[in-house]
């Protein structure tokens, strides 16, 4: 993940995938593409030809090229000069179309990268938007063990030595999957999505006190590892001796939210005590969380039943 990319960076990674070839402006390879802000707002990263609000990557497909060819010479030149004025970092002609000679000349003169691909314009834009959503996403690292449990991404947090890794190991033995231990990385790839991944150096490893570092993939197979998952829930483990009785809601448990990269993530607190089967409790907590997402609250259901029973028993 990074704050910006250059045209050369994009070519290194996406040249083969997109079938990109240089047409002109090779000296502009260090032009940057980023989530930059201007007094007029944040320009779009990539999109079809837009002169009024220029995209950082201007895509010229069949419709755009047909429009440019239909203009009179002076009008055509005005638009091409705006395209190469520096407001945009990169120009891509799609559908194997031939760029206008004047565009090629201006691009070379102004060192604005001009590239061509055989892909349709809409397909190119979709691929690049997905690429940028990953590469330019806002990121953070959280301490804990990130896992896929019952199909959702769950981050196990808590103080050191509270038992996170032991709990993760038991969950893995029950068929759930490890994403990252100790330092999972999270990126906000969409307005409401945080994707968690594992730093390359820590992939497949889980540290358990008394056992040392374990290679989960080697021990349990590929099915025990998940490369990435969206963060949907945090389970915070706390020593029961440090949890005040008055802090626990007997009907609804201990719940709150934690803000991660601007998103509110639900948190469930689980008291840790000898004899408690935390793996079973985590599974139950997640199943109950999924029910709550569907609008069912067991504590409210019980309270409603009690009120009805009291009304029946009252003369």
Note down, in words, how this protein is organized:
The strands form 4 sheets. Strands 8, 9, 10, 11, 12, 13, 16, 17 and 18 form a 9-stranded mixed sheet that branches. This protein has helices at residues 7-18, 62-70, 73-83, 101-110, 121-135, 164-173, 216-220, 278-293, 298-313, and strands at residues 4-6, 21-24, 32-34, 46-48, 57-60, 90-93, 114-116, 138-141, 144-149, 152-158, 177-182, 185-190, 193-197, 205-208, 212-215, 228-239, 254-260, 263-272. The chain has 315 residues and is α/β, with parallel strands linked by helices. The model has no long low-confidence stretch (mean pLDDT 90). The longest helix is centred in the C-terminal third of the chain and has 16 residues, at 278-293. The termini are far apart. The protein folds into 2 domains: 4-135, HprK N-terminal domain-like (Udp-n-acetylmuramoylalanyl-d-glutamate--2,6- Diaminopimelate Ligase, Chain: A, domain 1), CATH 3.40.1390.20; 138-305, Rossmann fold, CATH 3.40.50.300.
- Domain count, please report it: 2
Query: Class of the largest domain in CATH?
Result: Alpha Beta
Strand content: 25-35%
Query: Span from first to last CA?
Result: 68 Å
CATH topology of the largest domain: Rossmann fold
N-to-C series of helices and strands: EHEEEEHHEHEHEEEHEEEEEHEEEHH
Q: For this entry, what is the oligomeric state of its chains?
A: single chain
């Amino acid at each position: 993940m990074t704050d910006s990319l250059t045209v050369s960076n994009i070519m290194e990674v996406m040249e083969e995938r997109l079938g990109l070839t240089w047409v002109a402006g090779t000296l502009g390879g260090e032009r940057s593409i980023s989530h930059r802000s201007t007094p007029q707002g944040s320009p779009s990263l990539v999109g079809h030809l837009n002169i009024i609000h220029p995209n950082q990557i201007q895509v010229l497909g069949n419709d755009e090229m047909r429009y440019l060819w239909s203009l009179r010479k002076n009008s055509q030149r005005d638009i091409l000069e705006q395209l190469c004025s520096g407001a945009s970092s990169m120009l891509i002609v799609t559908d194997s179309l031939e760029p206008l000679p004047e565009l090629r000349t201006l691009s070379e003169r102004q060192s604005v990268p001009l590239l061509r691909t055989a892909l349709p314009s809409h397909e190119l834009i979709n691929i690049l938007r997905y690429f940028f959503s990953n590469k330019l996403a806002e990121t953070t690292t959280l301490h804990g063990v990130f896992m896929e449990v019952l199909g959702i991404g769950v981050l196990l947090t808590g103080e050191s030595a509270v038992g996170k890794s032991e709990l993760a190991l038991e969950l893995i033995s029950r068929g759930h999957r490890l994403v990252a231990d100790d330092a999972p990385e999270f990126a906000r790839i969409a307005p409401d999505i945080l994707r968690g991944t594992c730093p390359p150096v820590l992939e497949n490893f889980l540290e358990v006190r008394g056992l040392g570092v374990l290679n989960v993939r080697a021990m349990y197979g590929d099915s025990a590892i998940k490369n990435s998952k969206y963060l949907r829930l945090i389970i915070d483990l706390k020593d029961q001796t440090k949890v005040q009785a008055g802090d626990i809601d007997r009907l609804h448990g201990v719940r709150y939210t934690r803000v991660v990269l601007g998103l509110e993530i639900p948190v469930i607190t689980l008291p840790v005590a000898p004899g408690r089967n935390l793996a079973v409790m985590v599974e139950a907590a997640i199943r109950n969380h999924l029910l709550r997402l569907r609008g069912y609250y067991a504590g409210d259901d019980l309270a409603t039943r009690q009120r009805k029973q009291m009304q029946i028993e009252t003369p």
